[in-house]
Automatic annotation (TrEMBL):
GO MF: ATP binding; phosphoprotein phosphatase activity; phosphorelay sensor kinase activity
Catalysis: reaction(s): ATP + protein L-histidine = ADP + protein N-phospho-L-histidine
Enzyme Commission identifier(s): 2.7.13.3
Superkingdom of the source species: Bacteria
Organism (species): Gracilibacillus dipsosauri
Listed name of the protein: histidine kinase
Amino acid sequence: MVVLFTVGLVLTFLFVEFVLSMFTWYADNFVYDFLLSPINEHPILFLSLCWIVGFIIIVLISWKRIIYYFDTIIEASNELASSNEDLIRLPRELKQVEEQMNQIKQSSIKNDRLAKEAEQRKNDLIVYLAHDLKTPLTSVIGYLTLLNDEQEISNELRQKYTSISLDKAIRLEDLINEFFEITRFNLSKLTLELSQVNVIRMFEQLTFEFQPLLNEKKLAFQLISPDKLDIKCDVGKMERVFDNIIRNAVSYSFPDSTITIEIKEESKGISIRFENEGYTIPEEKVNRIFEQFYRLDSSRGTNTGGAGLGLAIAKEIVELHQGTISVSSSDDKVVFIIYLPTLS
């Protein structure tokens, strides 16, 4: 800019000199005595003075413009913290800054909205859990009161009441565990403790542990895999991921159906595919299935689902392993696919 200004000043000076040389000037002329004569005698000095004056004017104009830009950006930055969704407007010269600030603002608004929605779902679940705690607790108290008050109750009836009380107490324990799971939930605290494990043996053990639940719903497991496949992972956390997906498959599968688990070795890792036969999950629910505190069954009760943390935590654990997890559902089938890369 300084070079252009200097060149322009010199060209302007030469042009003015050329124009003025076309006129005849006399020695006693005021303009000639006080302006043209000094310029002709000291042209470099005159150009230098003009350059300095012009440079100062340009700096002042530019500085004023810069101050204006700074004030505009500062004012716009205050809008980043506002909750309104109006776009930030800046001068045309700051178009790139405007686009970046709008991206930041939209991202902030989206994150704030998601956080509020998660907090609302969390609060709703706490209310639901608190409400549902009353039912098994009331039943336990009722049956224990009967056992305590009725001294001549038959052994068969006593056994029945004791069994019902035990079932309700177990349900009560599950609800309390869900409540604690919600209150202590903090994904940022998850860390990995990696070790080598035969993933095939892990699934054989998991499917064996689910056998009682399978028998209740007349379900079957089909495990398709090589004889042995080692991966490096946090065994405890990955067991939690697999347990959660299998448990969901058992809970939502049609009776007399098969849950298929297919494990494949990929070029740089492994893929694990879970498929079960159950009601097709609507697309809008599929898109939100990994959100914190989101439950497929949005009904008031909690008997058909946990606290809505399982899949959110599962996704976080898989991503901590630099892997991916996805879900799809169509034609009364639900498919989860996990990819885990080879970790060094």
